[in-house]
Amino acid sequence: MNIIKEKIIKMSKKEYSDLIKDLAHKQLFNINEEEQKIFEDSFKQTVYSFDSFEKINTDNIEPLNYPIENPYFYLRSDSEIIELNGKEWVDTQNHNNEGYVEVKYEK
Can you give the pTM of this predicted structure? Predict the structure, then answer.
């Protein structure tokens, strides 16, 4: 049994209701009582559905880095990058002032 489900089972109705309000608040949204009731039922259903995942046999299954196994993996072709050192870069600029590049600001 998962930890969240164990905690929910032990909660009183008020504690569970407060938990839902707190979760909504942490996600920065407000819910009215009708929406809260719907969310409480939905959340409880979701938590209880995790039991079915625990029953899945995952022996001898290697973990995937990506949810879909893709046999085709293409790398983009890179072009050579020519890097200039500081002096070379300054020398190629039109507005070179004693080793500084002047940036013209126009409104």
Answer: 0.42
Cα separation, 47 vs 11, whole angstroms: 14
Is the distance from CB of 19 to CB of 11 less than 8 angstroms? yes
Report the distance separating Cα 2 and Cα 64, nearest Å. 23
Q: Which amino acid is at 48?
A: Y
Distance CA 86, CA 22 (A): 54
Q: Could you report the per-residue pLDDT of 29-79, keeping only the tens digit for each?
A: 888 889 888 888 888 888 888 778 878 888 988 887 777 766 666 777 777
Tell me the CA distances in angstroms from 103 to 20, 74, 89, 96, 100, one per residue in order.
55, 41, 14, 10, 9
> Smallest Cα–Cα separation from 47: which of 22, 16, 78, 68?
16
Q: Is 79 helix (H, G, I), strand (E, B) or coil?
A: coil
